[in-house]
Amino acid sequence: MPLTVEQWHRQFLRQARWTQEMRSRLYRAAGLGAAQAVLDVGCGTGAITEELAQRTAGQVTGLDLDPAMIDFASSGAGDVQWVIGDAHHLPLETGSFDVVLCNFLLLWTTDPGLAVSEMARVVRGGGVVLATTEPDYGGRIDYPEGIALAPLMEESLRVEGAHPRIGRRLKGLFSSAGLQAQSGVIASMWDDRQMAQEFDAEWDFIFETLGNVAERAELEGYREEERVALEEGSRVVFMPSFWALGRKAVDQ
Q: Do residues 157 and 163 touch, judged by C-beta distance below 8 A?
């Protein structure tokens, strides 16, 4: 059964908590506070968009392809403009934003290079395109090693048409779009408290999303192994996520 919009929203909020500190640093580097016009591409349920609206006095626009996501996002508080649109063909004027950003978007795009080029098109000269977080499942580590979730996650994402190793491609994608690019990695390692608090919610998400590549019994086995490892204090989850910041030349 597909996840509901509400279930996706809870997952988006969990993801947002994992990388909140790095996002704050990236917002400062991008000049978000002084921006007059900000675009969040692939905004989903608005989990990040509302955060942006709190960080700038400028106009924030959230764009997503899914009308149900936009409907959910628009029901929240905040002075945000909501637009239904495709990241590959942004229905927006060239050079109309100071900061254009995305979060966990390029993973899901059909053509990540085209999506980045479109973000570069709608940002003004001297403005910034920012990908705050894009995962790279090729670098995920699970310990004990018997909890073999990483290859299943990669396989499931590929089956869904996603790019599970998009993180390592970010800098090249930004450079190819004509941006002066820099990138880095968020070495995200979950702590025991976080894993214990989010254990049930995370496994509900795993059962829903990995059902296309694994039997329920196999996943139940991994869940029990993780529960035991948490109790013993041996569980490790390391997940690299990449960011990229690209500045558009003033004369572009």
A: yes
> Rounded mean pLDDT of the chain?
93
pLDDT tens-digit readout, 190-233: 788 888 988 998 899 899 999 999 999 999 999 999 999 999 99
- Taking the C-alpha atoms of residue 129 and residue 38, their distance in angstroms, rounded to an integer, is 10
| CA–CA dist 237, 36 (Å, integer) | 39
Domain assignments of the chain as residue spans, ordered by start: 5-247
Q: Where are the alpha helices (DSSP H) in 31-101?
A: 49-55, 67-74
| pLDDT digits 0-9 by tens, 42-72 | 999 998 999 999 999 899 999 999 999 999 9
Looking only at the bridges linking them, the beta strands covering 80-84 and 180-189 are: unpaired
Question: Of 145, 144, 107, 158, which Cα lies nearest the Cα of 233?
Answer: 144
5-18 and 20-30 helices, crossing angle to 10°: 80
Q: Which residues contact 240 (CB under 8 A, 6 or more apart)?
A: 135, 136, 139, 140, 167, 185, 186, 187, 188
Fold observed for domain 5-247: Rossmann fold (3.40.50)
Q: Per the confidence metrics, is the pTM higher than 0.85? A: yes
Q: How far apart are CA 92 and CA 219, in angstroms?
A: 43
Residues 186, 22 contacting (CB under 8 angstroms): yes
Q: Which of 61, 111, 71 is nearest to 91 (CA)?
A: 61
